């Protein structure tokens, strides 16, 4: 597909955009400029179905796909009916692997489905990657329907210190179990489906953050996506996220918002938390909110020790200064040129210095930043309710926290790495979200990230009363970890899907 | 003669020729078309010279992709050594029927008295990518949803089974396999057919899954082939043969390219509209039709035809198939029976067994009816000496439908 065709197509596909005649209510997909019934009297306006749910009218199992879909082997394709608009669209059912024997597809008819932002296919290893929201998962399965209902802010009277306004976590449905006790205490890990990658994780996490925060997407003026597995070396994931989530005021087919993709190994996202908080407080920024996303399809060569700890997924945080659920009270960065883990441009997998990644790298940077943050805040470990550290495995974050004077109760809630694996840039943000899911107003959280190469950012957050109002709008990390619909795959499937992502 | 009403014909077919259908690896598309065209010309009883032909109408879907060439008129001007007006119609699997429809318009306009109509396709030159190529006839969003052509029909078939076959104790699914059994049985006497082999219901229902619920033996094959007709104005028909086959109805209708935007998943609106128009044009009912060539690209489509044409009611097609097959005692053609109506569908095996070189199919259907109405169909000649035949050719999943009614004797 050519670049111009891609541009035209994504404007429709990213949001399942259609055209509605305001005179008679008929809806057309793909959108058209006039109503077949009203003719010249037509008054057409754009409607989209990104946050809607539909019903499966019919489907089939594709067993011999077109070349572009060979990477999925076999899958369900169907016709989805959005009842409110009486609109029917074609869609692929994702996160479903058909068995080899015949499936009675008539049993799927009538089931509710939710749009998912996924990769459709790509033009080889060097060409464009095509994404769409015309992919759906069953609503009664892993991914429930969530309504996006922006709420008008209570205004300047609730304005104060910048901090977190909302967050969203996206963890794929599929998991792989580690042997016996797990490797470095990682018992199981998230596995991306073949059509997922860092950009799709980012969009899904960002979508959930908007739903959780209930802010208006038009007021998000900046978006950062931190990752070390961006699908493109050049071409930002951030612009895809902005286009799909419509961040910023719309103008023609673009948006008055900005941002970048960032890279600093596993702290690519957390490094920008302070920038996000600073921007919303800066008078000439002109926007209300900044979104920071940390996501990775964590890379590891087959057989490498990392191959037994890496996961996939990510989290998005929205920073603002109104209706804040956790204020950002302290920030301490610590950096040195320590080459413990690296990947040269064009190489597929990272390399690392084995045991060197421990004491002189992770422990030195994380410990130093933690101590400095406590010192600058005049706090002791006893003043902190939860401690969250970057989690390449479950042992490092636990050990460094104990060394700094924290106990199991403070550490354990953030050790989600045991169940989801190392999400690289998404690791610390996801662990922070897990803690916010259960934190009470007044709680203090010390979060310290680590990025190889090397550096740490220590943050102290204080939870506000606002957090209670937003509970119930999120799908908690625990709910995702324990989701009864999560599905385990074998090692070969895990490698195949991971490498096609 | 059932009545004394004489129908006014639009055009007449006076010659027809075709290649065998199948994997024809040693010929280019223009060579296949030339072979069929020359056979059609040579079949004209009182002779036809190339100089008699005033225009050519070709139909093909994918030749630009499969063979990396365009401007078939230029190739055919070279092959036939003529410089007359020629045009190519693309309407996916309905290209052949559409080419004939256009030829009828040319003749009805009075501009031409003699035209050559040809349909062709060369699918095995690119068999590795043909599944992708066929999706050019689907909406790009259907392609983006991972659909294949079999998949689109499978979704229609699934909905049909859900809506009308539920509680039938598997009979509906069996009926959709019986269409295959019938059409392969019909092809046994067809010397040009791609597959002259009988299949049982078990064979169909145990064949490899292509797009559940569609299995390989529910599908028409990938084929090469070409067919040509000599079509003339009724006024000059008798100059060429004593037994012209008259085209008394020629109609076409269209619908949204995507199955998603259509009114129904369990029928083809374009077929219904074209059928209504052609029956009105000829003042006929389906009871007047004795043999029909239905577009059975997948067995569900032949079932849709029975309903869309009005031969039976909505949701009753599979029951007609089932009961007709199960109650059949003869040895040759298995007619569909609805009350006192009998209709032989796809006497030569249809797309399923004769083959489906997509652009050739609509013309092949008329070739088959031409032969049947003249009692020249050889091993697959029906026993009933039919006088009225119908050809139903659709493009894509029903984005276009063309229907022609042919008669040997114009009295009805």
Describe the structure.
With 501 residues, chain A is α+β, with helices and mostly antiparallel strands. Chain A has two domains: 136 residues, no CATH class; 345 residues, 3-Layer(aba) Sandwich (Peroxisomal Thiolase, Chain A, domain 1), CATH 3.40.47. Chain A has twelve helices and 24 strands. In chain A, the strands form six sheets. A nine-stranded mixed β-sheet of chain A has the order 15-12-16-17-9-18-23-22-21, sandwiched between helices. In chain A, helix 2 runs parallel beside helix 3. Chain B has 412 residues and is α/β, with parallel strands linked by helices. Chain B has a single domain, classed as Thiolase/Chalcone synthase (Peroxisomal Thiolase, Chain A, domain 1), CATH 3.40.47. Chain B has an eleven-stranded mixed β-sheet, with helices on both faces. In chain B, helix 4 packs across helix 15 and helix 8 packs across helix 13. Chain B is globular, with a radius of gyration of 20 Å. Classes of the chains: A alpha+beta (501), B alpha/beta (412). Chains A and B meet through strand 4, strand 5, strand 6 and strand 8 of A and helix 6, helix 7 and strand 5 of B. Strand 4 of chain A pairs antiparallel with strand 5 of chain B, so a sheet runs across the interface.
């Amino acid at each position: 597909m050519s670049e111009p065709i891609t541009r035209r197509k994504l404007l429709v596909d990213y949001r399942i955009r259609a055209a509605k005649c305001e005179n008679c209510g008929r809806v057309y997909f793909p959108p058209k400029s006039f109503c077949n019934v009203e003719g010249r009297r037509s008054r057409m306006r754009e409607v989209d179905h990104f946050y809607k749910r539909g019903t499966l009218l019919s489907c089939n199992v594709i067993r011999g796909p077109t070349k572009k879909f060979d990477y999925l082997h076999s899958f369900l394709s169907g016709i989805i009916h959005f009842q409110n608009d009486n609109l029917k669209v074609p869609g692929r059912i994702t996160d479903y692997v058909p068995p080899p024997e015949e499936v009675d597809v008539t049993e799927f008819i009538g089931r509710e489905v939710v749009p998912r932002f996924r990769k459709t296919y790509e033009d080889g290893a060097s060409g464009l990657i095509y994404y769409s929201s015309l992919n759906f998962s069953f609503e009664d399965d892993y991914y429930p329907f969530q309504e996006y209902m922006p709420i008008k802010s209570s205004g300047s009277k609730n304005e104060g210190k910048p901090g977190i306004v909302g967050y969203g976590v996206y963890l794929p449905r599929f998991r792989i179990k580690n042997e016996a006790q797990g490797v470095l205490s990682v018992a199981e890990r998230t596995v991306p489906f073949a059509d997922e990658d860092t950009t799709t994780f980012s969009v899904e996490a960002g979508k959930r953050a908007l739903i959780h925060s209930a802010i208006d997407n038009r007021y998000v003026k900046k978006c950062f996506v931190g990752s070390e597995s961006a699908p493109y070396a050049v071409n930002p994931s951030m612009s895809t996220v902005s286009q799909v989530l419509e961040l910023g005021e719309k103008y023609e087919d673009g948006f008055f918002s900005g941002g970048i993709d960032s890279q600093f190994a596993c702290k690519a996202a957390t490094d920008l938390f302070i920038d996000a908080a600073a921007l919303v407080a800066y008078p000439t920024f002109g926007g209300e909110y900044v979104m920071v996303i940390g996501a990775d399809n964590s890379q590891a060569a087959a057989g490498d020790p990392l191959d037994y700890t890496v996961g996939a997924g990510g989290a998005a945080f929205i920073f603002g200064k109104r209706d804040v659920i956790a204020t950002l009270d302290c920030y301490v960065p610590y950096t040195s040129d320590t080459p413990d883990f690296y990947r040269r441009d064009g190489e597929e997998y990272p390399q690392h210095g084995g045991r060197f990644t421990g004491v002189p790298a992770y422990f030195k940077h994380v410990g130093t930043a933690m101590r400095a943050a406590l010192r600058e805040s005049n706090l002791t470990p006893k003043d902190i309710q939860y401690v969250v550290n970057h989690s390449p495995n479950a042992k490092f974050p636990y050990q460094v926290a104990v060394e700094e004077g924290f106990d199991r109760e403070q550490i354990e809630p953030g050790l989600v790495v045991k169940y989801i694996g190392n999400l690289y840039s998404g690791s610390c943000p996801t662990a922070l979200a897990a803690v916010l899911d259960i934190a009470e107003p007044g709680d203090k959280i010390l979060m310290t990230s680590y990025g190889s190469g090397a550096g740490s950012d220590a943050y102290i957050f204080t939870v506000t009363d606002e957090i209670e109002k937003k509970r119930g709008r999120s799908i908690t990390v625990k709910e995702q970890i324990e989701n009864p619909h999560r599905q385990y795959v074998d090692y070969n499937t895990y490698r195949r899907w991971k490498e096609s992502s | 003669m059932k009545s004394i009403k004489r129908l006014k014909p639009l055009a007449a077919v006076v010659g027809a020729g075709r290649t065998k259908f199948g994997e024809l690896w040693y010929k280019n598309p223009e060579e296949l078309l030339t072979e069929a065209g020359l056979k059609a010309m040579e079949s004209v009883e009182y002779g036809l010279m190339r100089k008699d032909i005033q225009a050519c109408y070709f139909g093909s879907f994918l030749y630009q992709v499969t063979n990396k060439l365009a401007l078939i008129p230029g190739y055919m001007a070279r092959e036939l050594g003529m410089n007359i007006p020629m045009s190519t119609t693309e309407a996916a699997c309905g290209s052949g029927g559409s080419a004939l429809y256009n030829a009828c318009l040319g003749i009805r306009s009075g501009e031409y008295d003699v035209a050559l109509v040809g349909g062709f396709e060369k699918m095995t030159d690119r068999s590795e990518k043909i599944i992708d190529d066929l999706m050019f006839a689907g909406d790009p969003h259907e392609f983006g949803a991972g659909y294949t052509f079999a998949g689109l029909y499978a979704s229609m078939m699934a909905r049909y089974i859900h809506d009308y076959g539920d509680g039938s104790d598997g009979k509906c699914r069996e009926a959709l396999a019986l269409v295959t059994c019938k059409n392969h049985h019909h092809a046994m006497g067809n010397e040009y057919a791609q597959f002259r082999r009988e299949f049982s219901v078990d064979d169909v229902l145990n064949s490899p899954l292509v797009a559940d619920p569609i299995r390989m033996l529910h599908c028409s094959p990938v084929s090469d082939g070409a067919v040509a007709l000599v079509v003339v104005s009724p006024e000059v028909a008798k100059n060429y043969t004593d037994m012209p086959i008259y085209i008394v109805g020629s109609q076409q209708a269209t619908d949204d390219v995507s199955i998603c935007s259509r009114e129904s998943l369990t029928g083809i609106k374009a077929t219904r509209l074209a059928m209504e128009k052609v029956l009105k044009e000829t003042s006929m009912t389906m009871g007047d039709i004795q043999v029909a060539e239905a577009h059975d690209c997948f067995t569900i489509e032949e079932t849709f035809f029975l309903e869309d044409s009005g031969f039976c009611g909505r949701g009753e097609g599979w029951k007609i198939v089932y009961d007709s097959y199960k109650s059949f005692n003869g040895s040759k053609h298995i007619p569909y029976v609805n009350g006192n109506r009998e209709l032989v569908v796809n006497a030569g095996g249809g797309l399923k067994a004769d083959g489906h070189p997509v652009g050739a199919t609509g013309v092949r259907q008329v070739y088959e009816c031409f032969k049947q109405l003249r009692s020249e169909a050889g091993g697959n000649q029906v026993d009933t000496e039919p006088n009225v035949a119908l050809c139903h050719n659709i493009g894509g999943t029903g984005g276009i439908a063309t229907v022609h009614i042919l008669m040997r004797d114009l009295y009805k």
